[in-house]
Each structure stands twice: as C-alpha cells, then as structure tokens.
Design a protein that fits this description.
The structure is a single chain. It is built from 13 helices and no strands. With 251 residues, the protein is mainly alpha-helical.
C-alpha cells in the first residue's frame, strides 16, 4: 500500500469530511444447521476424540447427511480472506476513535501494517475479533495486532476443524460389519468328513458314548441299581472295577 494513501492521511484531518466509496458490507457469519454443528462437536466424554462414523450416524439420524456438500461450500467461502476495502474502513474508524497521533506518516504506516497483518483472517472473524479486542482494551488504548489475532486464531482453527470433519464425512469409506454365521454341528461334521478327518468324528462319538455309559466316579448303591445290577449282587459288584460292573450289568 502507498504510504500516502488517502484514507491514512484523512485520519489526521479533524472534522474534515471527504467523499469516499461506499463501504463494503459487513462480513456475515456462515449459517449451518444446528444438527450439523452438533454432529461435528467433540465428544463430551473425556479422552474420546471425535469419530467420523459417529458423526455420520448423527447426520443420518437428523436427516442432514445430504446437506453436507452445501455446508462444506459455506465453510470454504467463510474461510476466504477478509475484503480489503472493509478492513481498511474498519481500521480507519478505529484509528480515528482511538488513535493518539495526528501525524499523517504515523497513521499511514499503522494502517498499512495493520491491514497487512490482519488481511488473512476471514471477514466475520476479523470483525468479531476487532470488536472484542476493543471491548477488552483498557484506558482507551487501541488494541494491538497481537490482541486481535489472539482472539481470531482460535476461531479460525475451530472453523477449519469443522470443515475438515465435513470433508472426512464425504470421503469416509464405510465398512459395514460382515455377519458371521457359526456352522451347525451337522455342517462341521460334513466338512470334516469331506476333508478326510472322519477319525476325529469317530473319536468324538466314542468319547460321548463312553461318557453316557455311567458316571466316572465310585458308583453309589443307586447307580448300581440304575445299571441293572440285582440287589443281591450289590456286595459283589461294589468290589469290581467300574468297567467290569458295566459288563456284568450287560450280561
């Protein structure tokens, strides 16, 4: 910017009114549906980061999934740098109201550098940050560039994070869980026999048959009777091994 630029010089001409171009419109904050904002918000539980799959579920639940491309376009537009004419007008007003020097070279230099150091900010964020910095200034001192950026930069970061999350929703590759059905015992047996493992089935059948023959413990009187041992032979049966008892009962 030329250091003798007219707005900078006009700052020190007290009471003088000049014809200027129409002021640029005040930057507007982007409007997003509340449900979209909620779906992009960090989880409230400590230690749990935002999850794209959970965000997609919330957007689908609230009927907002189809609006994501529109929201992306709005945020991309809302991250564009501030309109130069609006920023110059806003800073000119601030200098006129709060500046303590009437030296045209000082005012021109201040305006040039302040515009350069704030020109990357989005318009609505720059407007809010300047206002908040002025509110926080003490004793009528004009806020510094650092004070303005300290307010603006977290707002920019938050907006960029929301945009990144919306883009993640669009590019997310959904992997639905595969339903795994456990085979039935009959299907397992068929697979084993088809692959030459019939001996495994035979051994299993033998173990099951052996388990069903009777308890693998010292039989009680009731066990003997249940195996068919006549009551008069109980004393003799109790002295035999278990397998011999089964054989005697079968005879």
């Amino acid at each position: 910017m030329d250091m003798s630029h007219k707005p900078g010089t006009a700052l020190v001409e007290q009471g003088q009114e000049e014809e200027e171009e129409a002021s640029a419109p005040v930057p507007q904050r982007p409007s997003l549906p509340r449900a979209v904002i909620s779906a992009l918000t960090d989880n409230s539980a400590p230690g749990e980061a935002w999850d794209v799959a959970q965000g997609i579920r919330e957007l689908r639940r609230d009927g907002q999934l189809a609006h994501v491309p529109i929201c992306i376009a709005r945020l991309e537009n809302a991250l564009l740098p501030v309109d130069g004419k609006w920023l110059e007008d806003r800073l000119t007003i601030m200098w006129t109201a709060m500046g303590h020097s009437r030296d045209p070279r000082v005012s021109a230099a201040w305006l040039h550098e302040t515009i350069r150091l704030l020109s990357d900010l989005p318009g609505d964020i720059a407007a809010d940050a300047i206002d908040e910095a002025i509110k926080a200034s003490e004793r009528g001192y004009m806020p510094s560039v650092g004070a303005i950026r300290k307010i603006a930069e977290p707002m920019v970061a938050k907006r960029k994070r929301a945009l990144a999350r919306l883009r993640a929703v669009v590019t997310y590759t959904r992997t639905d869980p595969v339903e795994v059905k456990r085979p039935t015992p009959e299907q397992v047996a068929e697979i084993l026999r088809d692959n030459g493992f019939a001996s495994i089935l035979d051994a299993k059948a033998e173990r099951e048959a052996r388990a069903n023959r009777g308890p693998a413990r010292n039989p009680t009187r009731e066990d003997y009777l249940a195996m068919g041992v006549p009551e008069e032979h109980l004393p003799e049966a109790m002295r035999l091994p278990v397998d011999a008892q089964h054989q005697a009962a079968a005879e």
